[in-house]
Specification:
Blueprint: E1 11-13, E2 16-17, E3 27-28, E4 35-37, H1 47-57, E5 86-90, E6 98-102, E7 120-121, H2 122-142, H3 144-186, H4 195-218, H5 222-234, H6 239-261, H7 266-273, H8 280-287, H9 292-310, H10 316-328
Antiparallel strand pairs: 1-4, 2-3, 5-6, 6-7
Helix pairs in contact: 2-3, 4-5, 4-6, 5-10, 6-8, 6-9, 6-10, 9-10
Length: about 325
């Protein structure tokens, strides 16, 4: 059907040729030599249906033994357990009885990706589909309005799920592109990117997330702070390392707050706090969200929670979560 553009209402010339007028054998010309005249007659099918058929047929496997034809369900069946494609097999006993099996089961080691082969006769699947279509047709006749409403709700739910899935893929792709751009900028003068460069970029990203988390705590945005914490856990960051980085950031803020009160310049404060000079301003801005007493109390609480984790009195993940909730829950007096 991929060559039957006549179904779409087009006329296709010069599809075939002959070596000589004496030869009765017809040869197929390359598609680049065809002459296609569009919309010359009424179409049998629309473009969308044609494209869907091509998409389905692109996944169809042809048997090299002469059986040739593809089953109507080929490329449309998927395993309910693992989500893998189900391939059609025909019993080689002269009956050519088609059966579908899960493609993931036979991959080595056998049974690791899918527990069973899920062999099912194609005739049984077609019977189930026929019964389902009859039930749907009967339902649509009995209550057409309800049927239309159900279809619309199902389509809307599917579209919402598809949009959500695509947004997540887009966000992941944008994040990956941003990480690659940072890595390229970081290694601009190098001809080879090494593992140490990737680790340095990853460490910087973790530090930035910690800064954003402390900033969310200072703004008492508990949801944002916890989301950043869960993101770090997803990235396999150990909870106690996250706790260490949070308390380190609080210590930097307390140190900068004290030095700013004594009139130190930015260069000196950066040197004593162990941070880049350009980061002094944003850290001072963040420090204003806390009182000096609150910062000191946070450091003491961090030490107490670390001791509770090491002595087994508290789970490490819960300890960090409680710390974030405590200091982001409500506005505290300075």
């Amino acid at each position: 059907m991929d060559r039957w553009r006549e179904y779409l209402g087009h006329t296709v010339n010069f599809k075939t040729r002959k070596k000589s007028y004496k030869s009765k054998k017809t040869l197929l010309n390359p598609e680049t030599e065809w002459k296609i005249f569009e919309n010359t007659h009424e179409a049998i099918i629309d473009q969308e249906t044609f494209d869907n058929v091509q998409r389905i047929r692109a996944n169809v496997r042809r048997y090299p033994d002469g059986w040739g034809e593809a089953h109507p369900l080929t490329g449309l069946m998927y395993c309910a357990d693992c989500g893998g494609k189900m391939y059609v097999h025909r019993v080689n006993n002269g009956k050519r009885d088609p059966q579908f099996t899960c493609s993931q089961y036979s991959k080595y080691p056998i049974g690791s990706l899918c527990p069973t082969q899920h062999r099912i006769r194609a005739e049984a699947v077609l019977t189930l589909i026929t019964d389902m279509l009859r039930a749907i047709a009967e339902y649509s006749k009995n209550d057409r309005a309800e049927f239309i409403r159900t279809v619309q709700e199902t389509q809307a739910a599917q579209q919402t799920a598809d949009i959500s899935k695509k947004r997540k893929r887009l966000a992941a792709a944008q994040k990956r592109a941003g990480e690659l751009e940072k890595l390229i900028c970081y290694t601009m003068d190098k001809s080879v990117i090494e593992a140490a460069d990737v680790e340095a970029i990853a460490t910087e990203q973790t530090t930035n997330r910690i800064f954003e988390m402390v900033n969310a705590i200072a703004e008492h945005n508990q949801r944002r702070a916890l989301d950043l914490y869960y993101d770090l856990l997803t990235l396999k960051e150990p909870p106690m390392r996250i706790m260490y980085l949070i308390t380190r950031q609080f210590q930097i803020l307390l140190h900068l707050r004290d030095m700013a009160g004594k009139g130190f310049d930015n260069q000196t404060m950066a040197q004593k706090a162990g941070i880049p000079p350009f980061a002094v301003k944003r850290n001072l801005t963040q420090a204003r969200g806390f009182g000096a007493g609150q910062l000191r109390q946070a450091l003491e609480d961090g030490v107490a929670l670390e001791e509770a984790v090491k002595t087994g009195r508290m789970n490490d993940q819960m300890a960090v979560e409680l710390f974030i909730i405590r200091y982001s829950a409500a506005k505290q007096k300075k």
